[in-house]
Amino acid sequence: MSRRHDREKPIAARAPARASRSEEIQFSRGKTLVYAAIAVLLGLSVIEGVSALIWATLVPDRFEDQVEEVPIRFGMVNFPDIVEKDPWLFWKLKRNATAPLDDGKMTGFISNGDRMRNPEVPVERGPNDFRVLCLGDSITFGWGVRYEEAYPTLLAELLREARPEREIQVLNASCSGYSIYQGHEMLRRRGLRYRPDVVTIWFGWNDKFPWDGMTDAEHARLFAREHLLTLSATYRVLAYALRRNEHEAERKERKEEKEGLPRVPLPEYQARLREMVEMARASESSPGRGARVVLIQGCFRDQMRSPRRRVGPPKLDAYQQATAEIAEQLDVPMLPLCDVLTEAGLGKKDFLDWGHLSPKGLRVVADSLFALMAEHEMLPGPVGSQAALP
Questions:
Q1: Which residue has the higher pLDDT, 239 or 291?
Q2: What is the model's pLDDT at position 17?
Q3: How many distinct structural domains can be found in the chain?
Q4: Among 7, 94, 95, 322, which one is most buried in terms of CB atoms within 10 A?
Q5: Exposed / middle / buried, residue 15 (Cβ in 10 Å: 0-12, 13-18, 19+)
């Protein structure tokens, strides 16, 4: 009995050693898998980092075209110094930009830290704030005039005079050369986060002209980032590389056509304008209430009539008519600028060129916009009331 027990004892003693050896093998395999996973993650991180650097060097064609064309066509010699590329907007104002008062058509104070032509405004609203967001192109920006003469700046002064006890903030989120495609992107990506009480929209100039025969939306596809995979710079670079040759071939073909597509075709202009109104109304500028909207129907110098020939309404182009149609369909107040300027006694001499208004004309825009807001009860209410009159 004792001998059997002694013989069996070493066998029993060896069992834990075998289990320990198996555990060591499993642990070794686990370490290998962990190290492999770490190596893969590091490799992907390096690839992602390199891709991000490559992505940062890619430049939208629209940006290159704009920077090349504007100084020549419009005399904005300082334009390349105050804008930078953007994958969504093609170009945007640089942060905290200024330009010499005697250098080109964009002068003085250009932009704040959030690339808007207004004093700094925190994203978070205060209880006493009243905010107007102005979206548009170079006319709204104030091309050819100082910051103090742009109509959003003048509108802010009128609102402060009407309600000195309120904190009035008018955000000029426009930029020279913008179409409604860019205004739409500006509103949904940046503008609405400021929770404006009123949104003014003025487009229809740059939209109707062909550039290279391709639309702004078609150009944006090269940089599109609308789903989860596009959070990866590697995916964006690969997608860009796959699309680029086809994009260039189509662009070359469109350029050779006699009549290419405008930057924003009319149906798209109508759809985007409608969406912008609906987005603003659906936002929450204050608890339970969205932003109010005002549309501005622009006017060109050639549409102005002399005092002796002011018979009948001006002949409007398709984009001006579309603005009026959307305003009527969605019950949005609209400022018909040709009529407004005519009633104020202004004429062709009050334009800096075929579309940009002089300081006198911009003053009329601000006064008329303020009056329209008052007519539709969009002015700020007293302290302690809602942000704007209902």
A1: 291
A2: 54
A3: 2
A4: 322
A5: exposed
User: Which residue from 289, 357, 315 is spatially nearest to 138, judged by alpha carbons?
Assistant: 357
Other C-beta atoms within 10 Å of 100: how many? Answer: 10
Within this chain, do residues 26 and 144 fall inside the same structural domain, yes or no? no
**Are 140 and 20 members of one domain?**
no
Residue with tokens 């009480």: 197
pTM of the model: 0.85
In a domain, 380, yes or no: no
Is residue 113 located within the same domain as residue 42?
no
Contact between 140 and 150 (Cβ < 8 Å): yes
Contact present, 346 and 364 (Cβ < 8 Å): yes
Task: Clarify whether residues 38 and 186 are in a common domain.
Answer: no
Model confidence band, residue 390 (pLDDT cutoffs 50, 70, 90): very low
User: Is residue 150 a contact partner of residue 362, using CB atoms and an 8 Å limit?
Assistant: yes
Distance CA 106, CA 89 (A): 19
Lowest mean pLDDT of 186-190, 372-376, 385-389, name the range: 385-389
